Amino acid sequence: MRARRAGALGRPRRLPGLGGLLFLTAALIGPAPLSGQGPTEAPGASRLSVFLDCEGRECMAASTFFRTEIDWVDWVRDREDADVHVILTNQTTGSGGNEYQLDFIGREALEGSDDQLFSRSLGTDVEQEELDGVTTTLAIGLARYGALSGLRGFVAVEPLAPRRAGRDARVLGPQDVDDPWNLWVFEVSASGTLDWTKTRDSERIAGDFMASRTTPTWKLELHLGANRNVVETLLSDSSVFESTLTDWAAEGQLVYSLAEHWSVGLISSLARLPRDNQRLRVEVTPALEYSVFPYVEATRRTLTTRYAIGPTHSDYLSKTIFEKTQETRYQESLQVRYAHRQPWGDGSLSITASHFLDDVEQHNIALRGSVSFRIARGLSLNVGGNISRVTDQIYLSAEGETDEEILLNLRTRASDKNWGFNVGFSYRFGSIYNNVVNNRFPTIMGG
User: Fold this and answer.
1) Are 156 and 143 in contact (CB under 8 A)?
2) Among the listed residues 68, 70, 155, 148, the one whose alpha carbon sits nearest the alpha carbon of residue 108
3) Is the CB of residue 426 less than 8 Å from the CB of residue 407?
4) Residue 225 in contact with residue 205, Cβ under 8 Å?
5) Helix or strand or coil: residue 172?
6) What is the DSSP string of 245-304?
């Protein structure tokens, strides 16, 4: 775990050591175990009010765990009622684990006392170990705000067994051990599905292999995947329509960190895509990316521009609408993407444009965006949409598609534009406190 205090200079700051890693236990009156959930007490001025800001089903499960383990604060459902606003984000690490970033934003009397802590998990950690690490980091951050608020009897410190250099012994660098894997991480998976009914039988077999190696300078990712789908459907005239689709792909990405704001990479792929009428597709694409903000700030905000150019070779299953059985074309693309997560809400916007070098009229332009905006206390507006213009479907088969292939979505069909839009709002009201946890009968809210 590492810590950095937000400030004008943004200099790194380490938590004070007491002969080893510190374990914080806190309670209103006297110390109590972090994992102990005592009787729920009436909220009052002697307790810290905390608003946790994260998204998704995993966040819902984690927030329940946090309320259970850290029962010496008041968890509120709206940031306007909070003394501390905590934004929790995460990104994948080279070991296959996660780095969780916790941004603490002081409000009202604590305004200006912002802080930032990190918790890292390993790819081999189980969910409980991962949650324990984040919970301890969250407790450390909140304990600081309790001290700033002048709360007495709030925090007790219990030193654990000394650890080397005051670090988490599980998080090792290449200089610490003789690593026989040389920082490589591998993952293998396989699955099979059988679905049989009176009128339709389907079988699916899939397998995946992933390998990655990540250092501060280099990032290498490899992925191999294959799928086989067999579907037999009884039609109205008692005939049986059978389809078999086998697709596979081998993809690789090599990225080099040029500077704080610059990266260069090589993206390549080799694939069989029968839905797109391609027996074999080969791509080799060098790319250059510029990040307006330093990459270390990517979990909270990012604005990047990526340019890529390279050849694509296609060997088609059947002759295309352009009378081709195989061809090699050069293509270039430009993507601009912005994403943020701020106290007032979060959102993202991206525009991607690509075209063939020998024919600009064959291009693809796509705009995608989403925003969740807190309008007022408890009221949020959620808007999302996408629109694209497509004129680069050079792989379409001249034979067209049968009705069965259309109904079963076995072939990609011609389309010069696609678009979609969604809008909604949510409003929560009632008690501002949500400290109590009751795990009997899982809730039906949220699915």
Assistant:
1) no
2) 148
3) no
4) no
5) coil
6) EEEEEEEEEEEEE-SSSEEEEEEEEEEEEGGGTEEEEEEEEEEEEEESS-GGGTTTEEEE
Calculate ∠ Cα 350-62-118, nearest 5°. 70
What would the pLDDT profile of 158-171 be if each residue is shown by its tens digit?
665 544 444 444 44
- In angstroms, rounded to a whole number, what is the distance separating the alpha carbons of residues 79 and 382? 17
Edge-to-edge order in the sheet of strand 49-53: 3-4, 115-120, 98-106, 84-92, 49-53, 74-75
Per-residue confidence band for 58, with pLDDT thresholds at 50, 70 and 90: low
Compare 202 and 216 and report the one with higher pLDDT: 202
Q: Which amino acid is at 313?
A: H
In the chain, domain spans = 3-166, 300-315+322-447
The token duo for 374 is 């807190």
Instruction: Please say whether the structural domain 3-166 has been given the CATH code 1.10.150.
Output: no
Q: How many whole angstroms separate alpha carbon 434 and alpha carbon 66?
A: 11
Cα gap 102→158, rounded to integer Å = 23
Gap between the Cα atoms of 264 and 290, Å rounded: 9
Query: Is the Cβ–Cβ distance between 139 and 34 less than 8 Å?
Result: yes
Model confidence pLDDT, tens digit, residues 241-269: 888 999 999 999 999 988 888 999 999 99
Distances, alpha carbon 372 to alpha carbons 23, 91, 308, 424, in Å: 36, 20, 31, 9
Task: Return the SS3 of 189.
Answer: strand
